[in-house]
Amino acid sequence: MFSKITLVSVLALGALGACKSDKEASRAEADNTAKNKRDEAVTPTADNAVAQSSDLDVTQKIRKGVMDDDSLSTTAHNCKIVVENGKVTLVGPVKDATEKARVAQIAANVVGDKNVINQLEVTN
Q1: 24-37 pLDDT, tens per residue?
Q2: Given Cys at both, which of 1, 40, 84, 99 links 94, Cβ 3.0 to 4.6 Å?
Q3: How many domains does the chain have?
Q4: How does pLDDT run across 48-85, given as a tens digit for each residue?
């Protein structure tokens, strides 16, 4: 009897460990910390963007468009959208070239093609 209980316990703990590993791997894929630090020196970020209400309005419209697009991955939904003096800079990873183009198109629909700097990176 004792050996059956021990075996069940070991199997349950093993399954728990496997679930934890999957979650940790998923978090690691979504972690952009290293890229963020690299990009700070050359790319505008939301925390140092000019706080003009018109820029804030543009940012909100683009973010809403990106979030409302169910064809985009979570990674694309989390891209950085920085607006300074009406110019939009898109930064961060996306799943593929289609997402890169789609996010840029959403921004261009708000501010026009000439005002979008697309620095999104395809991760695959």
Answers
A1: 544 455 566 666 66
A2: 99
A3: 2
A4: 555 678 899 999 999 999 999 999 999 999 999 999 98
Residue 100 token pair: 């890169």
Q: Which domain holds residue 38?
A: 32-122
> 3-class DSSP state for residue 47?
helix
Q: How far apart are the first and last CA of the chain?
A: 51
| Residues ≥6 apart with Cβ < 8 Å to 54 | 86
Contact 83, 58 (CB under 8 A): yes
Q: Tokens representing 56?
A: 């804030």
Reported for 52-57, long-range contacts at CB under 8 A and 24+ positions apart, including other chains, are: 52/85, 54/86, 55/83, 55/84, 55/85, 55/86, 56/83
The predicted structure's pLDDT at residue 53: 83
Say yes or no: 107 and 117 in one domain. yes
